[in-house]
Write a structure and sequence with these properties.
Distance between the termini: 42 Å
Radius of gyration: 23 Å
Shape: elongated
Number of strands: 0
Order of helices and strands: HHHHHH
Strand content: under 5%
């Protein structure tokens, strides 16, 4: 291939959408039995995957904003002091920012509930739940 000729690359979401349409409109109608239902299922899976890939940059940016906001909220709460387990879990959320660290923080909050007091416990738990709910909502955007 010469340097002046550049290959045409179809973006992954568009390619998957085309494959889905082919499975749904060409393959499924021309097959029978289990292959027919499998072709329709393939079309659905490819549509979902295409949507997930297309939304990934937007979702990654939103997740990062949610993480940053939660860390800022935890820093404000930390100014009042945290019990040991919550302290360790909050540091993990800062460092990792993944679902496992959020689950660890929820566990620590429940373990330290008495030391935190009901009002503070619910306030911090609400912050974490907000982030987890937003993550579920983002996943549902491409799953619906």
């Amino acid at each position: 291939m010469s340097d002046s000729v550049k290959p045409v690359v179809t973006p992954a979401p568009e390619l998957l959408a085309r494959m889905s349409a082919t499975a749904k409109q060409t393959i499924a109608p021309n097959t029978s039995g289990p292959a027919k239902s499998q072709a329709f299922m393939l079309a659905v899976v490819l549509e979902k995957l295409a949507r997930q890939i297309a939304l990934e940059p937007k979702h990654a940016a939103a997740a990062e904003r949610d993480h940053d906001a939660l860390c800022a909220d935890l820093d404000r709460e930390h100014a009042l002091g945290f019990p040991a387990r919550t302290e360790v879990a909050a540091r993990a959320v800062h460092a990792e920012g993944d679902a496992a660290s959020l689950c660890g923080l929820v566990s620590a909050l429940y373990a330290d509930r008495a030391a935190l007091g009901d009002e503070r416990f619910h306030r911090i738990l609400g912050m974490v739940r907000g982030v987890l709910r937003a993550d579920v909502d983002r996943r549902m955007e491409y799953s619906a």
